[in-house]
Amino acid sequence: METASxxxxxxxxxxxxxxxxxxxxxxxxxxxxxxxxxxxxxAPRKFYLFCGSRADGPKPYxxxxxxxxxRPNVRxxxxxxx
Length: 82
What we know:
- This protein has helices at about 10-20, 40-45, 65-70.
- By secondary structure, it is mostly helical.
């Protein structure tokens, strides 16, 4: 079986270089053009933090997080079900 992928996965180095000056924001600090990608689990701090970078046009995420969120749906198994 062959797996198809439209784009290779992002690695940590690409993520770090794409967003060199991250300033995480709370929900109340977000502006209309802020990236709304959650960057933590709220359990230890009791609230979510968000990316906060400039959003990519009308989308709710920055360019980097749009690449992660909006990947094409690729079926791994092309065999018929049943």
